[in-house]
Amino acid sequence: MEVDARREEVEEETDSLPPSALKLYEAQFFGFTPQTCMLRVYSAFQDCLYDILPVVEKVCVRQLSKGESDGAEELLRSRARECSRKLQQFLEDRFKQLSERMEALLVHRCFSIPPNVLLPEDESHSRYPQDRQEVLRLESSIADLQRAYEAEVCARQALLAELEEQKEVQKQLDGILTWVSELQAAWVKEGNGSFHESFRLVMESVKKLQEAVRGVCIKAPR
């Protein structure tokens, strides 16, 4: 419970610290932050303390209770337990103060990376530096290219749809030409003269018939 409380305390302190105080670059380099390092040291100290104090308590009670009655031994054991708790609280308070000083020392002396030191994965940034304006310009160019690509995709889809329509129209035209060729062949086979001249006469007759029907419709009483 003590360790969990300390962990929650460290997490709250970490959340309230600005990014510069968190030593994020140091954490990237070492794989941990000074806060988590001290938390592990504190946890190790707590484990050792909880293991050692009961043993010391038993040894003291055994040595001091020699020749004493059972009631005196029980009273001595109770006082030893109370002293152990006080000693534990005292050591924890002292170690907490010491850990705060150690954490400050670790942050500024041990886990501090000089400004001229770069991680291997960050060396490319020093070789090819780019300011904020350049990054914004590249992002704008990428957005323009994305929009142009989307427009090209839409145009391609429209052209494909138009091509399908043209294929359908071409199919219908081929059918008409086939029908005309078959009709022309049948006309010649029957000996009716020139197909083109006959077709022209037929079209004129159809036109005259349409005009006559239109005239009848106009003169007919309503």
Q: Give me the strand/helix succession.
A: HHHHHHHH
Distance between the termini: 105 Å
Low-confidence stretches: 13-22
Number of domains: 3
How many strands, which pairing sense, and closed or not: the largest β-sheet? Answer: none
Number of strands: 0
Radius of gyration: 49 Å
Structural class computed from helices and strand pairing: mainly alpha
Helices, by number, come to 8
Report the mean per-residue pLDDT as an integer.
76
Helix fraction bin = over 70%
Percent strand: under 5%
Oligomer: single chain
Given the C-alpha coordinates, what overall shape results?
rod-shaped
Would you give an account of this structure?
With 222 residues, the chain is mainly alpha-helical. Helix content is 84%, strand content 0%. It has helices spanning 2-16, 19-22, 24-30, 34-64, 70-110, 123-127, 132-189, 195-219. Helix 1 packs antiparallel against helix 4 (34-64) and helix 4 packs antiparallel against helix 5 (70-110). The longest helix has 58 residues, at 132-189. The model is unreliable at 13-22 (pLDDT under 50).
